[in-house]
Protein 1
Amino acid sequence: ITNSDTFSLERSHQLYQEAQQLLPGGVNSPVRAFRGVGGEPVFIERAEGPYLYDVDGHRYLDYVQSWGPMILGHTHPAVLEAVVAAGQRGFSFGAPTEAESNLARLVIDCVPSVEMIRFVNSGTEATMSALRLARAYTGRNKIIKFSGCYHGHADMLLVQAGSGVATMGLPDSPGVPTQTTQNTLTADYNNAAEVEQLFASYPDDIAAVIVEPIAANMGLVPPEPGFLERLRELTQKYHAILIFDEVMTGFRVALGGMQERVKITPDLTCFGKIIGGGLPVGAYGGRREIMDMVAPVGPMYQAGTLSGNPLAMAAGIATLNELRKAGQYEELERKGQRLEEGFNKALQDNKVDATFKRIGAMFCLYFSREAVVDYTSAKRSDTQRFARYFWSMLTSGIYLPPSQFESCFISLALDDDMIEETIQAAATSVNA
Ligand code: PMP
């Protein structure tokens, strides 16, 4: 299958027309509708390794990876085998299984700040539950989040959220009562002074600070040196809980997540995406003393019919076991470096004012000449130019997130020739 000159998405178009009659916007998650790039979505038929195959017969190198989970590439044989084997033993029991302890042990081994963990079904559930736990533990109500950080769609967190909200330019969502968000304080990413002021104003009321240790729902904004360290100091000083939302960065930028890279120990960590290997899994975990608040040991209620689902646990275990093999993150870093060099050369050769940002196997190309350090600066990017770049890449067989405000992901299935192919496509697309 090759992407011909007469690139047509006719079948996708037909399916999209039908889907729009049945599903709001034809999708089950807004950013999939391609509104951020002014077009219609591509409908996917199947995926294998580094590739996605659409319903019109095109093949793409996949840099979305289902928004992060597919770090090994699609239908990885070990993961597939584990899921099939688990399925043969039953799909769901709503009763304890050994697999839950096995995945828990893997996460706990890889992420030292996590002494105990509770599995849920999505990143949204993970952050919502971690905040309930922080509030239960501290007996306080207020939380601090950062503008442009997305932590899922729980009411209290739909304040200055990035991701699809950024893409769609939506205000804080209707349907969220102000009572629900009045305890949500916001600060600018990379601005610890603002956090300090909030703590000074409410020294006894702040239960938690929740942060993406790399902000990846407004493109890719790394923490500036000292920012996360200062959050750790302030939360300790004011006896508040520091929550790292590593739904995206967990097992992505290192086996131990971003906390391993920056050597900071949060009180609680949220996971999602990779720990489910492409099946619906989220988790929150941390210090045992805090986790002991969770029911049935403690009074903080949180539950789930399908939580710890055996198929999902099997996919997670198989995925983490692959990632634990020697050299995997070095290999991701090497691939990332190659891409970075290629993209930067393409930008220079074409004299394009854009900035390539990368940490490990995550990257983003901002069509902006100024430094992107927070939501305000991220939003100054030229989204029209991004859209032209996006469509040019797509027709060259490179599938990127359909929004300037999302991160791209590199998978282990991507080989050097594919990286070269991507750089070639970028060379003709950055000026599209
Ligand atoms: N936190 C972060 C950092 C995320 O990136 C996301 C989703 N992209 C979520 C939470 C929510 O996860 P989910 O979509 O699985 O609910």
Protein 2
Amino acid sequence: KPDAADLRKALDRGDILPFFQPKACLVHPSGPAICEVEALARWQHPQHGLIAPGEFIPLAESTGMILPLTWTMVEQSARQLAQWRADGLHLSVAINIAPAVIQDLDYPDRLAALVERAGASPEWFTLEITESGAMRDSEHAMDILTRLRLKGFNLSCDDFGTGYSSLVQLYRMPFCELKIDRSFVVDCIDQSEARVIIRASIELGHNLGLSVCAEGVEAQDVFDYLHAQGCDSIQGYHVGYPVPATDLPELVREAS
Ligand code: G
Ligand code: G
Ligand code: MN
Ligand code: NA
């Protein structure tokens, strides 16, 4: 099991890197298309091979290393986006932001500067913030989220439906997207309660002016259901697995 010293060394060596999972955009004028990917951290360990984030994100959060980890995820993603766009592949990227990362009022300025130094633009980024994370201290969170939004970053409320925000807070926060948690999506064909929650979330999101993404879509019937209900975008193994950057262009071409 990796410890804090291992993780520190991995960050110093550059062994933490983003994989990219495609997201299908359903409201694209010429039919479903992959316009966005979610960056998901992987640890390329010299001895143990690829380590999944479940094994090190909690460690990173409890040791403060989630800050440098997020920093390198954003920096590598920004360089990759700039490269893809130079090659004619027009993509945006979603990055997971832990609540501990967005505590300082100068973070929005520093993040935007990082992105621009890497040849990218904040508008190409969606920051995924968990509902419970965003709501912990709502006045302070509101201030920082507003600054991020003013810098041009798009904001997504991740894992929607599993947190404990009030709807008033969701309404006031400058989110652009609501991401329905995969626990409601996976079995929705068999579970009418899950479908009720999905339909209510889509309606709520749209009535608040947000686009709605569903994650955890593993089958065609689930994809079709969400499409019919007016979901704006779809993420899940049915659309594509998280892959290394080098594999993504081919995956996007196959899907279009
Ligand atoms: O990649 P995988 O599907 O195994 O991701 C597992 C969890 O780890 C997900 O909840 C995802 O949000 C989280 N995660 C992956 N990469 C990052 C990251 O760069 N930062 C943060 N904060 N969480 C991440
Ligand atoms: O919201 P969050 O960042 O936690 O979501 C990313 C996580 O969801 C990653 O662990 C990713 O590997 C996982 N994931 C992505 N697509 C699917 C899917 O279709 N089914 C399941 N079970 N997990 C998925
Ligand atoms: Mn996410
Ligand atoms: Na999620």
